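Q: Structure for this?
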Amino acid sequence: MPTKRGQIANELREAILSGEYQPGSTLPPLPVLMERYGTARDTVRDAISALANEGLVTPRRGIGTVVRETMPVELAYSPTAPARTWAQQVSSQNASDIVINAGWDKADADIAGRLGVSSGTRVLHRTRHQSRGSGVAQIHEQWIPGPIAEAIIRDTVDLSDKDAVVPTDLFSLMRISRTNPAETTETIGARMPDPEEREVMGLPSGVPVLVTKRVTRDNDGQAVETSTMVGAADRMTNSFTMALR
Amino acid sequence: MPTKRGQIANELREAILSGEYQPGSTLPPLPVLMERYGTARDTVRDAISALANEGLVTPRRGIGTVVRETMPVELAYSPTAPARTWAQQVSSQNASDIVINAGWDKADADIAGRLGVSSGTRVLHRTRHQSRGSGVAQIHEQWIPGPIAEAIIRDTVDLSDKDAVVPTDLFSLMRISRTNPAETTETIGARMPDPEEREVMGLPSGVPVLVTKRVTRDNDGQAVETSTMVGAADRMTNSFTMALR
DNA sequence: GAGTGGTCTAGACCACCAA
DNA sequence: TGGTGGTCTAGACCACTCT
């Protein structure tokens, strides 16, 4: 015997998916649904809350329960051939890639493990907010081993200055300073955002984040860079193309 | 001014993340939390419900509110060099890859677009449940253009029979029947599961699914296969390694 | 001002689990 | 059997948006 909230949620979900309620339009107001199903207010709200957590609707005070737009599937990252920056990839739209923070840091256990150095080793830590359109779509944190970062700063740009103008992508800068990124491994997972991530990216409920952990190595297998990227799953996808055999 | 439920959620979240409540243990029972915060039962439940939707806890009737185990980060898919089957990849554990359904179908608009054929074209449609340990970790749906599938069936195994024993991976079978998969593109996103997916994979609330859409092409750029894979994000990650430059 | 959803209460009964 | 969380009610008041 299903619960009332479950039945209400099922009927509304089916109506949404069948197109009876169009994206951008609103569901009937709570009082109407209470009347229709003969239930208390909280029961209807629980049903709608479930739909919100599935990413189907967004309730808005004073407006109504808005049916969410279908996910705007966008290509976002595709590392074949030369590395491209965020702005280059989403070039057609008004995209931005802002350095929020840059400076020297001590590697914690996770980062040290990825870079193959000991915990507490000096690393350059950069945090960027990558946006397209209005909101932040991805938070990019990057760590570079101290010696490699110092060589880049000596030969090219001061990456430890968050306001420094970086004329091209990091891998190009590395090559100028005699570091040769040769291979990159990305591991992609997903989870629900924490409150801070929801705040920064303006995520509605029911939207997970894609978490990408990357390690880039040179020809000797030495790690030259590692990144953690947290992206809003309603605004981006990751795409990879590779040869078989 | 934060809400009561928000404050309660914040305090409990912090306590969990700081290790005050260990994974596998339970939070204080509702009556205790009601007393501690001086609130009604539903207010505490709303707070806990939020934590559940973040993937931090799983309330269990008769047991308590269990702190979830930290995500068992596992490598799951890494297409470099020869294609490997699910079972080969997760070989060390008790993994399985069961064909739930196989048969001829008409391509809908999405699939037709991916395969570069017209809507309604005859395609072979296979659905698999890929598991490791107890639960289903990934649902794999695959579509193969009619002529290619027929060639495979003629030369090797009857893929339209869901109980047929497939001795090796699909790409090897293709090569035997003069189809040459050369390049594959995977696009990865994430969303919350629908009720059916939650049912099949036994997903607790707060766990998103990784959605991978793949198109494999031959040397002429002709699509020879397309797949949609829906995987439980608390049980798997996708990993890619590729050369730079 | 009228209508929307958001929060909170106090109390009831149900379903599940362990001892 | 006693304790756990799950569902539901009826009513109250608040915060926001539109006209």
